[in-house]
# Entry
Amino acid sequence: MADALTMALVKRAELTARVGEQRRDLERSIAGLAVPIAVIDRALDASRFMRAHPVAVGGTVAMLAALRTRSVLRLLTRAFGAWRLLRKLQSVLARFGA
# Structure
């Protein structure tokens, strides 16, 4: 009886080690997909927002159409700069635990 139990425990240890190896292999193989998956997640979030707020999206499109191209580009440049500044501020605050 003890021999069968020992064999079962050895087999269990071997299987556990094999599962651990397979888990590490899987993590390594999908590690490169983290960034593309994050981009897809953000695109899906944007799509959900647009579906949930069609009036806001339509108003934004109408406003951009009413403005001239130069003013739209200027507005987008400023918005992008503000967004980058906000992201940088968030990362700095995150480092300090805020």
Summary: The two ends are 59 Å apart (CA to CA). Residues 67-98 form one domain. The chain has four helices and no strands. The CA atoms of residues 36 and 42 lie 10 Å apart.
